[in-house]
């Protein structure tokens, strides 16, 4: 199953990227080769035989929208830029993207020849008498294969992210595994396990009720409910390790593992802290409003997940995976 | 009521870890467990577990990265948006529902964007944040948890996880419609 989903994500991604790039090429989304007329407000004009102009490209949102076929809203666009234009009025320009740069130009800059820097030709520059402003006709460097380039970049970036996440776990993993080991040796986990035996026997019939895996799973679920994700992951991984000791076919998930994972992926949390923080930052009158609705949503997810996992594990297709080990 | 519940749970969350450590260590000490030696013994596994996850997480995140960067999500959204209208789900929140199991940072970005555009207290804002709180990043959890014990055949965990996500999203739409749409 994971095989199919994994290969589909990659295949759909690459096909969609190619499709999107063909579409962009056909409709010339980035207006390759088409000149646009902008106002150039001069901050520093060249002196003597110099050719470097520093200033801002200024263009109204309406004109920008008209040129690129967008419907953006907002204030007049003002982009700091450096020009290299001689007395003939022809030359080149470049700018690095910043917060004020319109989204379309940022997008273009991402796959430009120099990353996050857009360059192009100045076809004409006619400055006013006092050299304070000028009318400039500019053409951007051709922008092609935006999505394909983005896909390549993402593949590399995410591989890095994965390693960073994993290595970032080392410290807290060590801490919590150490703490858990003490609890285990002291017999605390056993006490906890006994209290919840009636429930865990139903959920994990294959796991002996006094097995250390049960204790670790209980603590993982409790930590998740309290939103202590830093503690929950190490406890969950500890639980997986214990469950794996009962596994007769290493490399294949047991029924108990699947049940445990579904409880984890449905994410039953009493306080969805991240969502509340984002709401508060966005200026909500009542950021905590979603506590109740989230609990109900997560309860639906957990119930559906548990039913699904118990039904699916009976299917011959998934039972077969386990049986091979016994034969 | 909601405020009280929130501060109560917050209090438990703040106290849980120090209390847990105090109780575990105190109990262990009383039971004559050699706490320092045992702690170090347990902590030793931390490094190996973290390193064991790397190939699984690289495989998963790289595929998700390709999918996200390709713009395939926009395509899927436009295909599926007629269906969402039937259950009263605004089509703006469809990318949120589809991104949630795939990527935590991706769905966080979509939620933030939706709130910026529609306002956090609009129906779309409330629904998006409820969706975010209703489920976990299934693919990430699967890669990390299975990776830590070298499980390559996850059997029915993924379909069950996705079914759970689907119903979590349905539940979020359902409850938000009942409470926030007259």
Describe the structure in your own words.
The complex is a heterodimer of chains A (327) and B (182). Chain A is α+β, with helices and mostly antiparallel strands and 327 residues long. Chain A is 56% helix and 16% strand. Chain A has a 6-stranded antiparallel β-barrel. Chain A folds into 2 domains: 31-143, no CATH class; 176-326, no CATH class. The model of chain A has no long low-confidence stretch (mean pLDDT 89). With 182 residues, chain B is mostly helical. Chain B folds into 2 domains: 1-43, no CATH class; 50-180, no CATH class. In chain B, 80% of the residues lie in helices and 0% in strands. Chain B is built from 9 helices and no strands. The radius of gyration of chain B is 21 Å and the shape is globular.
Instruction: State the distance separating the first and last CA atoms of chain B.
Output: 22 Å
Helix content of chain B: over 70%
Major sheet of chain B: none
User: Biggest interface and which pair forms it?
Assistant: A-B, 115 and 107 residues
Order of helix and strand elements from N to C terminus of chain B: HHHHHHHHH
The whole-number mean of residue pLDDT values of chain A reads 89
Rg over alpha carbons of chain B: 21 Å
Helix count from the secondary structure assignment of chain B: 9
Give the low-pLDDT segments of chain A.
Answer: none
Strand content of chain A: 15-25%
Strand content of chain B: under 5%
The major beta sheet of chain A can be summarized as: 6 strands, antiparallel, barrel
Please give the share of residues in helix of chain A: 55-70%
Mean pLDDT of chain B: 90
Characterize this entry briefly.
Chain A has 327 residues and is of the alpha+beta class. Chain A contains 12 helices and 6 strands. Chain B has 182 residues and is mainly alpha-helical.
């Amino acid at each position: 199953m994971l095989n199919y989903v994994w290969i589909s994500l990659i295949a759909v991604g690459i096909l969609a990227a190619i499709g999107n790039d063909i579409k962009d090429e056909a409709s010339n989304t980035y207006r390759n080769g088409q000149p646009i007329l902008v106002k150039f407000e001069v901050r520093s004009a060249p002196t003597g035989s110099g050719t470097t102009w520093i200033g801002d490209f200024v263009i109204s949102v309406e004109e920008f929208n008209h040129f690129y076929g967008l419907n953006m809203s907002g204030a007049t666009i003002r982009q700091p830029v450096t020009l290299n234009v001689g007395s003939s009025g022809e030359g080149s320009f470049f700018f690095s993207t910043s917060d004020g740069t319109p989204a379309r130009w940022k997008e273009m800059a991402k796959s430009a020849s120099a990353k996050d820097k857009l360059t192009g030709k100045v076809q004409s520059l006619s400055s006013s008498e006092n050299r304070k402003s000028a009318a400039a006709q500019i053409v951007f460097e051709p922008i092609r294969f935006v999505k394909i380039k983005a896909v390549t970049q993402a593949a590399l970036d995410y591989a890095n992210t994965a390693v960073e996440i994993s290595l970032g776990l080392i410290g807290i993993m060590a801490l919590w595994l150490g703490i858990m080991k003490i609890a285990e040796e002291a017999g605390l986990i056993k006490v906890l396990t006994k209290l919840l035996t009636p429930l865990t026997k139903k959920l994990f019939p294959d796991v002996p009720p006094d097995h250390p895996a049960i204790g670790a799973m209980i603590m993982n679920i409790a930590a998740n409910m309290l939103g202590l994700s830093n503690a929950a992951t190490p406890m969950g991984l500890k639980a997986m390790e214990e469950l794996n000791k009962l596994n007769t076919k290493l490399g294949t998930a047991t029924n108990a593992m699947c049940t445990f994972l579904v409880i984890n992926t449905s994410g039953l949390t009493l306080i969805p802290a991240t969502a509340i923080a984002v709401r508060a930052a966005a200026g909500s009158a009542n950021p905590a409003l979603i506590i109740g609705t989230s609990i109900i949503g997560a309860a639906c997810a957990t119930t559906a997940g548990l039913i699904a996992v118990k039904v699916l594990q009976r299917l011959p297709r998934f039972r077969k995976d386990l049986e091979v080990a016994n034969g | 009521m909601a405020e009280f519940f929130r501060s109560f749970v917050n209090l438990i969350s703040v106290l849980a870890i120090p209390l847990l450590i105090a109780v575990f260590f105190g109990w262990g000490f009383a039971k004559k467990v050699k706490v320092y030696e045992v702690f170090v013994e347990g902590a030793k596994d931390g490094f190996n577990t973290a390193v064991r996850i790397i190939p699984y997480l690289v495989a998963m995140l790289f595929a998700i990265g390709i999918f996200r960067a390709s713009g395939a999500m926009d395509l899927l959204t436009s295909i599926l948006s007629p269906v969402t209208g039937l259950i009263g789900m605004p089509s703006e929140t469809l990318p949120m529902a589809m991104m949630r199991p795939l990527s935590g940072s991706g769905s966080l970005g979509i939620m933030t964007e939706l709130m910026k555009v529609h306002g956090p207290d609009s129906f779309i804002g409330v629904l998006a944040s409820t969706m975010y709180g209703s489920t976990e990043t299934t693919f990430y959890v699967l890669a990390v948890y299975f990776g830590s014990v070298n499980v390559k055949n996850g059997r029915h965990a993924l379909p069950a996880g996705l079914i759970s996500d689907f119903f979590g999203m349905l539940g979020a739409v359902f409850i938000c419609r009942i409470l926030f749409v007259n």
